[in-house]
Amino acid sequence: MVKASIRDVMDGQRAFFGSCATRDTGFRVEQLRRLYRVIRENDALIMDSLHADMAKPRLEAYAGEIALVLNEIRYAIRKLSCWTKPAWVMTARPLLPSVCYTLAEPYGLVLILAPWNYPFQLAVSPLVGAMAAGNCAVLKPSELAPAMSDVLQRLFEDHFDPHYIHVATGGADVARELLEERFDSIFFTGSTRVGRIVMEAASRHLTPVTLELGGKSPCIVDSDVHLRYAARRIVWAKFFNAGQTCVAPDYLLVDSAIKDEFVEVLSKQIIAFFGTDPSGSPDYARIINRLHYDRLCSYLSQGKILIGGQTSPETRYIAPTLIEDVSPQDPLMQDEIFGPILPILGYTHLEEAISFVNARPKPLSLYLFSRDTRKQEQVRLETSSGGYCINDAVVQVASHLLPFGGVGDSGMGSYHGKAGFDTFSHTKSVVKNTLLFDIPLRYVPYRFKLRLVKWLF
Ligand code: NAD
Description:
Blueprint: H1 3-18, H2 25-41, H3 43-54, H4 58-83, E1 87-89, E2 99-106, E3 109-113, H5 121-132, E4 136-140, H6 146-159, E5 165-167, H7 172-180, E6 185-189, H8 192-204, E7 209-212, E8 217-221, H9 227-239, E9 249-255, H10 259-274, H11 290-299, E10 304-307, E11 311-312, E12 317-318, E13 321-324, H12 331-334, E14 341-347, H13 350-358, E15 365-369, H14 373-382, E16 387-390, E17 411-412, H15 418-423, E18 425-432, H16 450-456
Parallel strand pairs: 3-4, 3-6, 4-5, 6-7, 8-9, 8-15, 9-14, 13-14, 15-16
Antiparallel strand pairs: 1-2, 2-18, 7-17, 10-13, 11-12
Helix pairs in contact: 2-4, 3-4, 3-6, 4-5, 9-10
The protein binds nicotinamide-adenine-dinucleotide.
Nicotinamide-adenine-dinucleotide binds next to helix 7 and helix 8.
């Protein structure tokens, strides 16, 4: 996109925002309803484009992308009048007889930069928060999911005023051009590396940022566990979307007492889900592009493969793979894997697993499988992560009632439901005094007023 056209779009959006049209909650509800209808009417098109980009199974496309966004919209429509009400605050003594309240105010123009792995959900779900909060938005989908990027552009062009919502397609060059402009809030989902670039660019305009980043999400498996249930949940969570999920368990830390037995149960579960040749399963996605495929293939030589390891460059297929005897120094254990390869490491005491986690950047999610409530508490207390999920994995993103976000290297800020509305709102504090009378205590000459002031404060 040429610079002039970004400027034109933004000028148009500033004028539209300045008209106060988006301040009206009726307008917001109407636009959210429209978005809901457009998605419902085009769900087949959305699923087709997700299949074209990464052979995403239709159920995964619906459950992991469309349904989550529809839930978000329904919830925002239901709650909007409550979220936009003034929140009355008790008047502090020095401010009497004023009344005080806070109010959510839209930022203005927001920029949403999205990644490719859930290219519909991770673009539109933040947009729901931005719309509910009364902003105008520029949305840039990921160039690595071109079919979805086209569909988003078409749907928004056909159904929304570009002075309200505009989709800018393109790659990093377009993102960089957008980042040069002054937005009022930036919401970025993607890698930690690009997150740093975004934050640096935002600092030039002092624009607030929300960073939804990635990293290695560990999964600890204690010996006091239901092996079959734990294996089934982990295999599902890891190989959903072929491991290309920001909150997928990146590696397993398994109590050495059960490691061999657990590997066997995991392997059986992979076969139960995808058959002995997962390349023939209609329920298994492909790697997004050749670059990521090659990166993932290079990890396969960094340990001993227990099951899987088969690849096909033509279809960018990598079988669900379990791997052990890995070195913490190798790229497999340094980089975020973001694919269907699951390293398995053993530990003797839980403290050892906790130290392993704490020696690395704070993850987006941390998983523990254990029946022992003392250990569940210990891990929660002694580690820090964006989210913590006990006896399950990945499912925490599916609730619009739970704020979702990272901490440290895995991000800052959160969204989903009310948290999404708050992320795209400025909390304005309002004080309103009366003109019926005027208390003279604060005015000069001060003389003997100090004692009274001391009492008041
Ligand atoms: P990415 O950081 O490469 O790209 C994300 C967006 O940034 C894209 O729109 C891209 O065009 C843009 N971009 C790329 N390079 C840029 C640059 N130099 N300057 C400005 N913009 C640039 O991420 P990705 O490969 O699309 O997604 C994978 C990553 O995203 C993983 O690390 C994953 O964990 C993370 N992720 C996080 C979440 C979350 O909710 N926390 C969700 C999904 C993915």
